[in-house]
Amino acid sequence: MRAQREAVLFVDLSTDTVERRPVPEAWRRRYLGGKGLGARYLYEEVPAAADPRGPENVLGFMLGPVSGYLPGETRYAAVTKSPLTGTFLDSYSGGAFADRLAGSLSDCLGLLITGVASSPVRIELDSGECSIEPAQTWGCDTVETDDAFPDSAVACIGPAGEREVAYATIASDGGDHHAGRGGAGAVMGTKRLKAVVVHDREPAIPDDLETLHENYAAAYERDDTGTWLAAGGTLETVDYANEVGILSAEGWQQTEFDGTDDIGIEAATARANGREQSGPVPGDFRIETETGEVVPRGAAPITLGAGLGIDEFDAVVDLAGFCDRLGLDVISAGNAVAWAIRAGGAGVADCDLEFGDPAGARQLLSAIARRDEGPEWVASGLPDALANGVDAATRQFGGDELIPTVKSMALPGFDPRQTVGMALAFATSDRGACHRRARPLEREPLAGAAWSMQDRVRAVVGEQNARSVLWSLVVDDFVGETLWDDLGAEWLAALEYDHDVETLVDTGERIWNLVRLFNAREGFDREDDALPSMFHSPVGDSDAVIDPDAFDEMLDLYYAARGWGPNGLPTPETVARLDLTATVDAETPLGAPWTGETDSSDPSENE
């Protein structure tokens, strides 16, 4: 028998108390779990303008109604207010910890943590029971912390999280998996929470769901995404990006990298000693190094390889493993090092590091993660400034056009000049520059001029809504492609939810709008949906640019399609249509109506 997930555990570290609270039935129906339910709790519990590093911020480890039942990796959503961007943050991680979290939370959809402990602690979960214990591994890296609990699964922070680096991760499975972008690990550090330790095994798949599970596993194996991932894992992304001319290299100064063959899929298959797991969803490659096994993912060769001008596979894997142990997001970390190199070359800050120097990059990464003064060839205060993000460094030193950011989050290494739809996805992403909210980069470069501005808007809106649903179910990002047609309606029906596809499309739009309202309450509007002006000029051998006037026109179309005003905020009519009127508080600004004509697209379309 399976238990319906219908409660959450609230842990207040300031008072050392644990409370089990039922989730309102209307919230479960309207927000499901994961991203959606996490957003609803954050909007309710976190006051406007609350310090992300303060006791009022909430950190959620959220599951969904299908957690533990779908093929592929079970995942959890880390949900909080980001210390890097100040926006709503949802970040996802899989592996054994997520599996066993689904077992340990029993009938709960999440663990919500508030307050600040008086001294470092860990949280332990066992059969639905939660306790707060002293953290004996404070000061240890992520691998050492995981090793301290050999019979359990662990999500923890490393030195970067302890020192509240704004893009510190929550690492699990000894650093193989990370809730990476946006700094959820820094929130753990501010709360003096070193780890969450879970003891139960993963939930068994109930007999009445076994056939459904097998059918979806087979469907995934036949799916293009399943075929692609089985062949090369996410590391193949660097080869694709280079081939279509969107790979940023050497600190965003080029859009192709001559060393791709040396750090991409061919190099990985030659060095790998296996995959993460057996079966239809094998995951990424396992690489043995002198300091232990590393599972580098696509962001590693893109940001730590091409982005830093490093064309040695072993050196890239070493840097990725080093970030894993420190608990650093590799995308933000790679961009921070690239900024330092370019700032040194431009005379903005004293830094003698050059592209193509993995040893120097490693030294700087260590200094950033520990907020040290750093090596002698780095300006005083530079590592500490970079620990707060590229934008923080530019406020202190200058050089704001060296590395692109959106809402203070550094862009992943995909140059949007060749894929204008991706530029829109980056700009309108709810957590800052993100390549997972919508991914027109997978289709647009191949479609070329065949894609109109309306096509781009429709694709971005549809994918953002659809992924809002899938991330509320908290499905494996890639296996989720097999749920794309019905957004999980068949699974929900098997779990006795009454959501059809139309209802789920509305649910995705509601969740995306609720997050937008959270961000609006924090002061975000159209001015923050902008790309750096560096993209208005060509780079390398390409003449592609983002035309600012055309981009503004596309943003207007996007807002109109969403039912938002010209300021980029949901209008009262949209809030009412999505049944959010009673949810929105008086501190949340809403959008004004349009005064001119704008061609809108249907935001309910699921591309």
* Rg calculated over all Cα atoms: 22 Å
DSSP, total strands: 16
Distance between the termini: 36 Å
CATH architecture call of the largest domain: 4-Layer Sandwich
Q: Describe the biggest sheet? A: 6 strands, mixed
Strand content: 5-15%
Counted up, domains total 3
Helix content: 25-40%
Q: On the 0-100 scale, what is the average pLDDT?
A: 94
The computed structural class is alpha+beta
CATH superfamily of the largest domain: Aldehyde ferredoxin oxidoreductase, N-terminal domain
CATH class of the largest domain: Alpha Beta
Output the number of helix runs: 24
The dominant shape is: globular
The third-level CATH topology of the largest domain is Aldehyde Ferredoxin Oxidoreductase,  A, domain 1
> Low-confidence stretches at least 5 residues in length (pLDDT < 50)?
603-607
Across the major sheet, the strand order is 2-1-6-3-4-5
